[in-house]
Design a protein that fits this description.
By secondary structure, this protein is an alpha/beta fold. It contains 6 helices and 9 strands, in the order H-E-H-E-E-H-E-H-E-H-E-H-E-E-E. Helix 4 runs parallel beside helix 5. The radius of gyration is 24 Å and the shape is globular.
Amino acid sequence: MARKRRSGRGKRRRWRTPLLVIVLLAAVLAAGWWHWRGRHWRPSEARYPEQGVLVGESDGAVRFAIVKGLGASFAYLEASRGANSRDRGFIANLAAAREHGLAAGAVHVFDPCTPADAQSANFVIAVPRDARLLPPAILLDGDAAFCPRPVSEAAIQSELMTLVNQIEAHAGKPVILAPSAAFERRYRVGGRIERNLWLTRGLAEPGYAGRPWTLWTANETLQTEAAENPLRWVVARP
């Protein structure tokens, strides 16, 4: 009887080993498929006809002719950050995007540690007053917890509203607010400042701001022939 029990255990080991291999192989293939999808997926053009990119200095050289060929109709370009930093590629990117028939807009990256007056002055220096530009956008992803001096939630909201008003006065158009999910959870700007929203979520529509988005960064790591580095792919609500 003991021999039969050992034989049974041996049989179980023999079928468990290939089953484990199959499970592991399936997991590897699934992970590989999701990785590929994450780097190549774009929303359907039939559902979202207006698509484009968000480009900044860290993306390196971008071939806007190829971006256009991929189906893009617009490009948002990082122009300024906080009070002192400006994107060195903004002017060249703006000219290249327009040369290839893309509508273009300017982006300011908000610094929660810095007063609004200094930030808006930086934006005004970086971005010309130009009626052809799309509505300006403000990217919101910083955390005041890391500021050298404490900044209250009320102060963040007040400075942001001031910045919104000052950038709108320069651009002549309402701004688009682009809070990350983390920024929105902490500061809840979506429900407090009545401006169009630009939200981010890979592979699925975002809903974290409590109201509909106008722009959606649907893929932050889109691999294309337009650039050496992955691009941030954006769609507009139809």
